[in-house]
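Entry 14. Ran structure prediction on the chain below.
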Amino acid sequence: MPLNKVMLIGNVGKDPEIRYLEGDSKVATIRMATSEKYRDRDGRQKEYTEWHTVTAWRTTADLVEKYVRKGSLLYVEGRLRTRSWTDKTGVQKSATEIVAENIQFLGRQPQSGAENGTSAPTAPKTPPTMPEIDTVDDDLPF
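Output, structure tokens:
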């Protein structure tokens, strides 16, 4: 049985890009960073950051447009999609992105709309629910 599933927790690197397609479909593109820290052979702490492109459609894109800003901490669940195209100069290009199926806001919400006296809703007092990890033993060989 095939499975294409991605789960990320990371920070948004810049404000989302919102586009409207034919038929008023909305798509939001988010650049998101995940980092890992480790020690090298000499014992020095290092950090490696991986950048991801996350695409959200329709109602999820509405939420992204309204609440996500640079610096937001997000939990994103989705699937990988690779697409390819030929640019204007005839060079073949490709990109791998995460198509978001679920986005949860973690941490404090950034202030938005401060210029017109409104702000984004504050984060709930209870932490957002994270997916439960199934710990049932099975007969898989790995």
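The two ends are 16 Å apart (CA to CA). Will compare against last week's run tomorrow.
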